[in-house]
Amino acid sequence: MIRALGQEEELAPSVRVLLVDDHEMVRIGLAAVLDTEDGIEVVGEAGNGKEGIRLALAYKPDVILMDLVMDVMDGVETTRLIMEELPDTKVIVLTSYLDDSKLYPVIEAGAFSYLLKTSRASEIAEAIRAASRGQSVLESQVAVKMMNRFRQPKQNMKKAPHEELTEREMDVLMLVAQGLSNQDIADKLFISIKTVKFHVTNVLNKLGVEDRTQAAIYAHKHDLAVD
């Protein structure tokens, strides 16, 4: 069943979670916040899809938090292979991407829930507990996109500029669209201000816009921003 974020739920004891993400600082941050949550235990961390499969088979976690864009093996293929071996494990996608080229393939591969990396820690923990009870959680914008897919005729469109962004650049774009400062973005993503400035410059160049305001407008226009 599909449920909305924010609803009250009962805590499920000892939900065993595996983290699969190629950014070490993201894994460290997730592990730190999840370790403070009642009834959730992080049993392992993998830096790419192939390692994620190995640890999934070794630990047989209840829930896997899965990044989508990774070296060696991406999240779509990793999810598909894990589902073939561990059909009872629930894969929660945790990504920066909302575009169709990544959303629908990973759901078809067996992903159980779909969240954005801008989700609050409490929302991620809630989704983990919900998954352990067999309840899927979709970010509101994901649910809207899935509904719109069946309402609008398919069109052949050239590749959009934002599809050229790396996952980290997409992280930065969404946070810029929320009005966060460089310092806020650095704190949120566990990176330096210098690195934030580097990514912002790349985002502006790839989107073909002149400043942060135009980048934010672009993000909202293309449903990339989280309100």
Automatic annotation (TrEMBL):
Coiled coil: none annotated. GO terms for biological process: phosphorelay signal transduction system; regulation of DNA-templated transcription. The modification 4-aspartylphosphate is found at D67. Residues 158-223 form the HTH luxR-type domain. InterPro entries: CheY-like_superfamily (IPR011006), NreC/VraR/RcsB-like_REC (IPR058245), Sig_transdc_resp-reg_receiver (IPR001789), Tscrpt_reg_LuxR_C (IPR000792), WalR-like (IPR039420). PANTHER family: TRANSCRIPTIONAL REGULATORY PROTEIN YDFI, TWO-COMPONENT RESPONSE REGULATOR. This is DNA-binding response regulator. It comes from Paenibacillus herberti.
